[in-house]
Amino acid sequence: MSTPDATKIPRHVAIIMDGNGRWAKQRSLPRLEGHRAGAESVRAIVRACGELGIGYLTLYAFSSENWRRPKAEVTALMALLEFYLQREVAELDKNNVRLAAIGRIHELPESAQRQLDKSIEALRKNTGLTLVLALSYGGRTEIVDAVRSIARDAKTGALDIADINEELISQRLYTRDIPDPDLLVRTSGELRVSNFLLWQISYAEIHVTDTLWPDFRKPQLLAALDDYSKRQRRFGRVAPLEGN
Ligand code: FPP
Which residue's alpha carbon is at the smallest distance from atom 3 of ligand 1? Predict the structure, then answer.
């Protein structure tokens, strides 16, 4: 597949990485091997997004619901995250990638939080792709946290209720500095949003592929971008917009 037209490249791609377990099962491997192979897809997709000039890539790496998985799997996923951050920071830096995290980060094990802070700091000055990791993330929880922060300010009088609007709510979300996703990709064929970026995906185009996440590499990303480039984004209006 050829490189897509630069004017039709989405500014922000968000991905629900699903199917690691099924990938492992198909090969009679432990689930952890699926997650390990999934981490290699993360590496390949981050690199490809940088090369293609995509501004933001948000990956659903660990949901609020994922805490309910067996303890050994949760521990292994956290260790994999730390290992990935440690191993990749030099490569990310070389590729001018900036790092951010969204979610209830304080719920992560302390060593993972430390590694995350260290990596974010090391990549802070970069100006290329921003890689956003959604960790201990839930869309509803994010809205709860935003409502709490707004209510607190309304109570003290720092905020007038009449000033609550969409812009203000967006500014209270974890994604306050990040534009809304243009394209939401979900792997492994499931037709669900799974509590991911509920507010932010209001106008996102959705691409679902049957490919399992560990098999999702640059050709599958290009297919998603090709699909996106053929959509007419209207944002509720009638006339098609040029250049979208
Ligand atoms: C879904 O597969 C995937 C996850 C819950 C975690 C995603 C984690 C990674 C890709 C690996 C590490 C991440 C980083 C950022 C280095 P699943 O286990 O739900 O698959 P299944 O539905 O087939 O069981």
Answer: 18
